[in-house]
Amino acid sequence: MADSAYNTPSEYIEHHLSNNAIALSEHNMMVLHLDTAIMAIICGFVSMGLIWLVARKATSGVPSKTQAFVELLFGFIDDQVKSSFNGDRNAFIAPAALTVFVWVLIMNSMDFLPIDIMAKIYGFFGLHYWKNVPTADINTTFALALGVWILMIYFGIKVHGLKGWTKDLFCAPFGPNPLVWPANFIFNIIEYISKPLSHSLRLFGNMYAGEVIFLLIGMLAASGVYGVFFSSLLGAGWAIFHILIVALQAFVFMMLTVVYLSMAHEGH
User: From CA 24, how far away is CA 86, in angstroms rounded?
Assistant: First the structure.
């Protein structure tokens, strides 16, 4: 429910979409989003902890419901990697895909925390600005995409060698003729730059939009009894639909990670 302390809807939305930022240099040239960093780290430990707890209690006999669910998840991710990864599979790709999926899924799921209730809890501890959803911050999604981009370059050089990777950079896709080397190089550089941008912006855009919609629905509650009723109704409906978005965006981000690493192994 939207807090009546805000004078305008713009103030309400702006407050909840503002990060708890700490300036690391003069004139705010470098800024740390403390809430994003802490929430992402917490979600990372939660994801690792959940998997560790299940692995610790795993049995070769009749599995528990939790173990069966996790095994189903493992098998699903492994099947996706098998169908999408065309290079020589190694022990890194499937665990990396699983890590990316679970971590992004849990970070996305922070969007289900009630915004106004959480704001009051944070305010009790003196935190007047605190965003719950790390993936609604472009810094998080771009950092994840940049990590995948670095791995893509690493595997490209590892599989093809520095000479082969450089040759692909200058000789594909238009051929090895020296006259088209500049065109090949520009084409490949654009491709390399576009991958982390599209990878990060897709996840960020969907999660940021979802957060804005929750805020807009929450503002209805400030318009009286009917507003509270419709806010609750629309909020429940959007939350149910948002479950699909949260899971789908984690899946898409994971699949793009596998595809990009597969492309690095294949080369041109």
Answer: 43
18-54: pLDDT as tens digits? 888 888 877 777 888 999 999 999 999 998 888 888 7
Catalytic residue among 84, 89, 202, 232: 202
Q: Can you give the pLDDT at residue 5?
A: 59
- Those residues of the chain that have pLDDT short of 50 are 1
Number of domains the chain is built from: 1
Cis peptide upstream of residue 173 (ω within 30 degrees of 0) = yes
**Catalytic residue check, 198:** yes
**In which domain, by residue range, is 79 found?**
9-266
Domain contains 2: no
Task: Decide if 56 is catalytic.
Answer: no
Catalytic residue, chosen from 83, 177, 198, 223, is 198
So what's the pLDDT on residue 1? 45
